């Protein structure tokens, strides 16, 4: 391995260091990771469709079945996070576990579990929305602004109707 020469300009040393790092850093198996993420995400979505079909089979409308399915998937992800299994599965599945609604549930529960030693209110309660809080705030503000713009500039009903 080539040694750094302190008499060389700093820019040359940086370039040599970057070349050495590029040679030594392992290349991630991108295609394998993509296939795993696609497969696992597809399995989660297939399971979700199976749950929707189950709820429709017991008499729920499609919208009610979809709502119940979301609740079941969020519960399962939160439960697996609580058991410490979600992170183990995500280590192999990658983004396939993180993209669907299950990733949102994991993102809410994981910080709360890490802070449980601080108590229910200041630990779990305060951390439960650490990730979801900003999403909810910006979602609500965006919805409010969209409604205001629609109200101000949207189509008007004819006068006298």
Automatic annotation (TrEMBL):
Superkingdom of origin: Bacteria
InterPro entries, A to Z: Spore_V_AC, SpoVA
Residues in the signal sequence: none
Key word Transmembrane helix present: yes
The entry's keywords: Membrane, Transmembrane, Transmembrane helix
Positions of transmembrane segments: 35-55, 62-86, 92-113, 125-153
NCBIfam families reported for this sequence: spore_V_AC (TIGR02838)
Database matches in PANTHER family: STAGE V SPORULATION PROTEIN AC, STAGE V SPORULATION PROTEIN AC-RELATED
Name of the protein described by the UniProt record: Stage V sporulation protein AC
Organism: Ammonifex thiophilus
Gene name, Swiss-Prot/TrEMBL: spoVAC
């Amino acid at each position: 391995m080539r040694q750094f020469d302190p008499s060389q300009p700093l820019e040359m040393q940086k370039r040599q260091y970057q070349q050495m790092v590029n040679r030594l850093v392992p290349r991630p198996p991108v295609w394998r990771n993509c296939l795993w993420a696609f497969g696992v995400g597809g399995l989660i979505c297939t399971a979700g469709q199976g749950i929707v079909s189950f709820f429709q089979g017991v008499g729920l409308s499609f919208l009610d079945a979809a709502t119940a399915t979301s609740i079941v998937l969020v519960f399962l992800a939160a439960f697996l996070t609580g058991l410490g299994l979600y992170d183990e599965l995500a280590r192999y599945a990658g983004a396939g576990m993180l993209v669907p609604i299950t990733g949102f549930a994991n993102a809410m529960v994981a910080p709360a579990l890490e802070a449980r030693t601080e108590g229910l209110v200041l630990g779990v309660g305060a951390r439960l929305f650490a990730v979801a809080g900003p999403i909810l705030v910006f979602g609500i503000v965006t919805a409010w602004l969209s409604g205001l713009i629609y109200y101000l500039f949207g189509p008007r009903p004819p006068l006298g109707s």
